[in-house]
Amino acid sequence: MEHSIHAGLFTRAFGPAPRAGTPTVVLVHGLGLSGRYFTPLARRLAANGASVLVPDLPGNARSRAAVRRMPDVERTAEALARWHRQLLPGPTLLVANSVGCQVVVALAVRHPGLAHRLVLLGPALTPGVPAWRQGGRLLADALREPLSLIGVAATDYLLTGPWRFAVSLRHALRDAAEAFEGRLARVAVPTLVVRGAGDTVVSKAWTRRVTRLIADGRATEVAGAAHAAHYSTPEAVAELIEKFAAGQNP
């Protein structure tokens, strides 16, 4: 793994350098976190020849100094688009977890030339569900995740800071209530929606709705995984991504 800063965003790189003709995957983390919890998946994808880039979104963890105030979902998508154009020669496969799904969906709609496929891992937040209930679902999910992930997440939350986390949550809730479903209906690229079978944050019903809203959407579940399926079952998730990238039904 190598790391650097591009367009103000701390970036982890795995596998060969991005270039035309090489499969390139961008992994986008969830609320208040960093890209560290994507490391098992990134290593697995890179082992099969993919170029994998994992940024910390602006204001989060090691990109904390990139902004003075936490940006909303649209501004975060614009920052990610600038980063993408600086680093990458063409459209990529964008993989996001949780609230990161709101960011990549906004990017794909606002900048359709930057993504040729999307993978949404546990797309959150669910519109209409109040913050206290979303928080309860997250706490319940924590009991189903590997202990090592809890340590990674706790460190990232401390780096990001409670105030910035709270502001990001407010932005994400507003986006979920006002814009997320409308943007899903405007996604024009093939999209795979992945849910861990034990996910308490994202329901089966919401997963089905996300899939139906997307013109070329398809869904699958990962057995033995919760909300962070990419961390607890990286082999299974990598296989799904590779099949989907090759145009096969996962």
Q: What topology, given as strand order, has the largest sheet?
A: 1-2-4-3-5-6-7-8
In CATH, the architecture is 3-Layer(aba) Sandwich
Structural class: alpha/beta
Q: Give the distance, in angstroms, between the N- and C-terminal Cα atoms.
A: 28 Å
What percentage of amino acids are in beta strands? Answer: 15-25%
What is the CATH first-level class name? Answer: Alpha Beta
Q: How large is the radius of gyration? A: 16 Å
* Rounded mean pLDDT score: 95
The total count of helices amounts to: 10
Helix content: 40-55%
Tell me what you see in this structure.
The structure is a single chain. With 250 residues, the protein is an alpha/beta fold. The protein has a single domain, classed as Alpha/Beta hydrolase fold, catalytic domain (Rossmann fold), CATH 3.40.50. Helix 2 crosses helix 3.
